[in-house]
Amino acid sequence: MTTTTKRKLINSGSFILGFGFIGALDGIIFHQLLQWHSVYMLADRPGQIVSDGLFHFAVTITLVIGGVLLWLAGNPSSLAKGIKLVVGGFLIGGGTFNLIEGITNHHILQIHRVKPTDANPLAYDLAFLGLGLLLIIIGYFIKRTKNERATAADL
Q1: How many domains does the chain have?
Q2: I want to staple 95 with a disulfide (CB 3.0 to 4.6 A). Which of 18, 38, 77, 132 is the partner?
């Protein structure tokens, strides 16, 4: 496998894995445990359960795809900055999930809010988007930092 192919697999696999992982956390923490960030406030309880089931199925498929791509890439530490690519891509993928889900479902479609029962639900929605943006920024800087380990090119 070429270095370019390995790098592409690591970048796409870690992004997709991060996207799916934050999606899974969103479903578990916000939808099920806290019952904030959910359509549970709607009257159609069977429809809510089906929509959450479809969501969990989609993020599970996303996790599997990301994992398979990383598995195909092989050991990331055999590539210069390989671990940083995995961690940075994972955080960027997770932050992207928050931004896409937050902007689409909370603001454009208005399907639900992060915490609809609060006196100021917009504050929770903006914090959710802010967290997504923060994850993307941190992931970007992790991917861009100089590798401390000397590579053959440095010697």
Answers
A1: 1
A2: 132
